[in-house]
Amino acid sequence: MASGLGGQVLRRSFQRSVGGPWNYVGGRRCDPTHATAPFKVTAPATGRVLCEVPGSGKEEVDRAVRSAKDALPAWSKLSGRERGQKLMEACRIIRENLEDISRLEVQDTGKPIWEARVDIGSCADALEYYGGLAPAIVGQHIPLSGGSFAMVQRRPLGVVGGIGAWNFPMQTCVWKVAPALACGNTFVYKPSQFTPVTAVTLGEVLTSAGVMDGVFNVVQGEGEAGEHLCHHPDVAKLSFTGSVPTGSKVMAAGAGGIKAVTLELGGKSPLIVFEDAQLENAIKATLVANFLSQGQVCSNGTRVFVHRSIAKTFTERLVSATRALKIGDPMAEDTTVGATIHEEHARKVLGYLTSAREEGAVVACGGEQVVLPGDLEGGWYLSPAVLTNCHDDMKVVREEVFGSVAAILVFDSEEEVVRRANDTLFGLAGAVFTRDLNRAHRVANEIEAGTVWINNYNLYPTEVPFGGYKHSGVGRENGTTVVEAFTQTRTLYVEMGDVDAGPLYVE
Ligand code: NAD
């Protein structure tokens, strides 16, 4: 029972400061048995080296997959209730230690502490939800003629390989691991090389919650470690969060091994504000849709379509609200804008602003590097930008910037805005702001995206499926639909009468 393995155990074993060993195999932190060149991880807040992590070569990935494979029979034979109890216990441990885990996440990502608390809270929610759902993951009984029947069993797939991005490190991991484990699978996860910290913390949490050794494993590394995982013959399913080009490679690797694949990829989502929208809510949502986590959010509504009749007022109010954001130390309670993940990415975001200016956009506010004093001098802090005078063909409007850059696009009619909103290869999310219920539903139903919010933005309750249309991905995370993605069915057909061979058999 998990109840004897609660916070007490965690308090003894939980590593609360950033440090190795960095892999997690067989229920403990460990160094790779065969390491590749170590990589340096930068603390976004300061620009200094946060840690140095040994990469995992093929042999180490093999070892982690073997560990997950060995743990599979025992884990998958537990009842759903038994597995669920352990996930619920992990939820409790995370809630009890939310502050410490959030602080680890801030050091890794540079996001403000208040945001990290929300992210880590959502990890607990996911473990609670799938812990509760686990006993309800059941099969079917199908009556057939003559008393014969079929039983459809819902079985785990086996070892799942997960690969994550750097913007929501622990949340990305838990959104995959919680449902996969609830369904009876075991797991090997490779975090982003920029944010290695909290996946290993999750390993400690799960072990403290009574999850058996080997059920959840972590290998660190760059793309090469991810490739080994994707191509491993004993990995039955790949669940990936990251960019479109890498997602395409992961899918190709999956095709080679006939593996099921879930892809959570990038976006360039439309946020549509009609003339009758409740303006204050639309402004608040535009901030949430563009400036959380320094704009490094896949579902961000970076194409802000505003009806011409309110464009001037909307822009003035948005610019004033954006200027009021506080750029500062990610650990400070009043900071609303933290540090960009690393210098190269900050320069990429600034490059998009340069191209926007060259193509005629006007930077109404922000878009500059802000050098903070003292220890924070080496971090890359960018002031959130609002662009006006934008048109649909600009590079900054077409491509995913993954930074705090909101582009305001003016429109005149409903038909026009729907067409322009859908004129993209992405389809992760979108939003409609209007007080007209009919129009809200009419437009939301036309948006080619996996999630459309009506009068809000960037909400992801665990109960609700999330994922992309078009190049934004394949499959969904969260909700009950994900159970399909982490299980397969086995049909047992039971004959209660005699075999009817027709003309094949003559007595
Ligand atoms: P990325 O594609 O560069 O890297 C993602 C992960 O893939 C990393 O762990 C990386 O080491 C690994 N990787 C690299 N090459 C690989 C290969 N050949 N095989 C296997 N793995 C490989 O993406 P990123 O820069 O870390 O993340 C940013 C992107 O992620 C953005 O496009 C963003 O929109 C997207 N994202 C999507 C979601 C979503 O839920 N849809 C959530 C977060 C981020």
Characterization of this structure:
The protein is of the alpha/beta class and 507 residues long. The protein is built from 16 helices and 22 strands. It has helices spanning 7-13, 58-77, 80-96, 98-109, 113-133, 169-182, 197-208, 223-231, 244-256, 279-291, 308-323, 343-358, 395-398, 414-421, 437-446, 482-485, and strands spanning 23-25, 28-30, 35-42, 49-56, 140-143, 149-156, 159-163, 186-190, 216-218, 235-241, 260-264, 270-273, 303-307, 362-365, 369-370, 381-382, 385-388, 405-411, 429-433, 451-454, 473-474, 487-494. The strands form six sheets. It has a seven-stranded mixed β-sheet with strand order 14-17-18-13-12-19-20, sandwiched between helices. β3 (35-42) and β4 (49-56) form a beta hairpin. α3 (80-96) packs antiparallel against α5, α5 packs parallel to α6 (169-182) and α10 (279-291) crosses α11. The chain is globular and about 85 Å long. It binds nicotinamide-adenine-dinucleotide. The site of nicotinamide-adenine-dinucleotide has 30 residues, from α8 and α9. Nicotinamide-adenine-dinucleotide binds at residues 163-168, 190, 192-193, 222-223, 226-227, 230, 241-243, 246, 249-250, 264-267, 298, 400, 402, 428, 468, 473.
